[in-house]
From TrEMBL:
EC main group: oxidoreductase
Domain Gfo/Idh/MocA-like oxidoreductase N-terminal: 8-134
Source species of the chain: Actinomyces howellii
Name this polypeptide is given: 1,5-anhydro-D-fructose reductase
EC id: 1.1.1.292
Membrane spanning stretches: none
Alphabetical keyword list: Oxidoreductase
């Protein structure tokens, strides 16, 4: 029997994402056996006592801390996940760089382009590999869509349509969590959902060069929660209300460096769609479209010479698409959201072993933050804004 190399993991913050990162690390030994590693969940850090209890009793961590600084000081922790609310990302990531620990951080990487820039530059200067939670990239159908787009199978690319329309805040009784605070979350749905859409568009098509955008806040007051929850669930509310300080909705037009045009739209307050995250890419010879609510399917049309049944073929995920075959041995059987995080964990740990940046990187997150900032500026003055070039290499044109 071969012994797998143990790799010490620390997870900072145990809300929805922190718990998912922990599950994802645990899956890597089995799903990616060729890496020859077994992640060891050494410690979690979260100020909430309930999260500390869950860390050791439910999730399998050896210990739990209230402060992330204690975790970062532990020499047996070789890699860290940063899953805190957005306003803590830059502070914690810079401390991780200081401690020499490669990190996997949730998006958005801070609450401003300036914060994202400082983190990306610090990681680069320290020679650390990183990973950022742009998990939808790892969807097998998206990987295949990208292949179609980038190999010319769709002809010359003309335009993309991307929308991330969710209902997690559609009820006026949804609580006023950290996500509604400008200081703690940034520009609302722009860095929250839309940053996934911009990343997907860049991953499939190339860098976004310029944007013009409209934004609005449709529900301006919300009840203050009286208990904490995890992600979007589990909060109780009282009579008191407070102001929503950031964007519920964004609509954008974009131009890509390569001349492709795009429309992107995102909402966190739509009534009807639950999590309708759609990417459509069009070329002169065909198109492909994917919807997160049907994660395992891709609709493809690759001919302009239609007969009476001309239109989309609905293909199911299969071994030719991305990492699908690591998760299911039988076509027609579905992968799920958590599996995308498992792939992200494996890419991160493979990068730690090899030094080659594989997952979406801190530079990609900086690039996304520059798109966010251009969107907010355009919504304020009604003009087109160029997205500044960043000097670090990104992974989406690899
Ligand atoms: N990639 C995705 O699809 C995706 C999905 C959801 C959330 N996210 C991102 O993940 C991050 C976390 O979101 P969530 O839904 O898990 O949030 P959450 O509200 O469920 O959890 C946040 C956790 O952070 C902890 N925390 C607060 N202050 C802390 C501190 N000083 N030190 C350590 N921990 C602290 C809280 O106690 C809580 O347990 C956000 O940046 C969010 O944008 C990404």
């Amino acid at each position: 029997m071969t012994t797998k190399k143990s790799i010490g993991v620390g997870v900072i913050s145990l809300g929805w994402m922190g718990r998912l990162h922990a599950r994802a690390y645990r899956s890597v030994g089995e799903r990616f056996p060729e890496l020859g590693i077994e992640p060891r969940l050494v410690a979690a850090a979260d100020p909430l006592e309930e999260a500390q209890r869950a860390a050791t009793e439910d999730l399998g961590f050896e210990r739990a801390h209230a402060s992330y600084r204690e975790l970062l000081a532990d020499p047996s922790i070789e890699v860290v996940s940063i899953c805190a609310p957005n306003y803590l990302h830059a502070e914690i990531a810079l401390a991780a760089v200081e401690a020499g620990k490669p990190f996997w951080i949730e998006k958005p990487m801070g609450v401003s382009a300036e914060q994202a820039r400082s983190v990306a530059r610090a990681a680069q200067a320290a020679g650390l590999v990183t990973a950022v939670g742009f998990n939808y990239r790892h969807t097998p159908a998206i990987e295949y869509m990208r292949e179609l787009a980038r190999t010319g199978a769709l002809g010359r690319l003309t335009n993309v349509r991307v929308w991330l329309i969710a209902d997690y805040n559609s009820s006026p009784l949804s609580p006023l969590t950290w996500r509604a605070s400008r200081d703690r979350a940034g520009a609302g749905v722009v860095p929250d959902l839309m940053s996934h859409g911009a990343d997907l568009a860049q991953y499939v098509v190339g860098r976004i060069a310029s944007v013009t955008a409209m934004t609005d806040t449709f529900i301006t007051e919300r009840p203050v929660p009286t208990t904490t929850g995890v992600g979007h669930s589990g909060f109780e509310i009282g009579e008191e209300t407070g102001p929503v300080e950031n964007e519920d909705y964004v609509a954008m037009l974009v131009r890509f460096d390569n001349g492709v045009l795009g429309t992107l739209e995102s909402s966190r307050v739509s009534v009807g769609p639950r999590a309708e995250y759609v990417v459509e890419v069009y070329g002169t010879n065909g198109s492909a479209r994917w919807n997160f609510e049907r994660l395992n399917e891709l609709e493809v049309c690759t001919t302009v010479d239609g007969g009476p049944t001309h239109g989309y073929t609905r293909a199911m995920a299969n071994p030719a698409w991305g990492e699908w075959s690591r998760y299911q041995p039988a076509i027609g059987t579905s992968m799920g959201f958590d599996d995308l995080k498992s792939i992200e964990a494996a890419q991160f740990l493979r990068s730690v072993l090899t030094g080659e940046q594989l997952a979406p990187s801190a530079a990609d997150a900086w690039c996304a933050a520059e798109v966010d900032e251009a969107v907010v500026a355009s919504a304020a003055d009604g003009r087109w804004h160029d997205v500044p070039h960043i000097e670090l290499p990104t992974t989406f044109n690899r």
